[in-house]
Design a protein that fits this description.
mainly beta, eight-stranded antiparallel sheet, globular
Length: 124
């Protein structure tokens, strides 16, 4: 599931979460839960299938006109929490907090906030 927002000043935010069929998510939606950006997050659910470890996951990305920031999801903790997923109208609510860095990994920022009834897209 992807949620994208544009702030109109060259800045945008992309929030993504994924889960797997074995977790029994709703059709065209995701489970209401906390999704970690960190590879070993305490909220992460994983299952090994045919030698592959399949884990649910979150990714947050903040982009501005000067610096392209993205979560360092394998080293720094963060999350996207889905509190409501309306699969009929494809709207979602929740909150997020994650740390971003510039491309040189020299400047860090915490990006956090909440969202309500935001439209989302589903990618297979």
């Amino acid at each position: 599931m992807n949620i994208q927002g544009n702030f109109g000043n060259g800045n945008s935010l992309v929030l993504s979460v994924s889960n797997w069929d074995w977790q029994n998510p709703p059709a065209n939606g995701v489970l209401e839960k906390i999704y970690d950006t960190h590879l070993t997050g305490t909220n992460m659910a994983c299952q090994e299938i045919s030698g592959s470890n399949l884990c649910d996951r979150a990714m947050g990305q903040y982009i501005n006109d000067l610096i392209h920031d993205a979560t360092i999801s394998d080293t720094i903790s963060g999350y996207i929490q889905i509190t409501l997923c309306d699969t009929v109208n494809k709207k979602v609510s929740g909150r997020f907090s994650f740390i971003t860095t510039d491309l040189n990994q020299t400047m860090y920022d915490t990006i956090q906030g909440s969202f309500a009834n935001q439209p989302y897209t589903v990618h297979w």
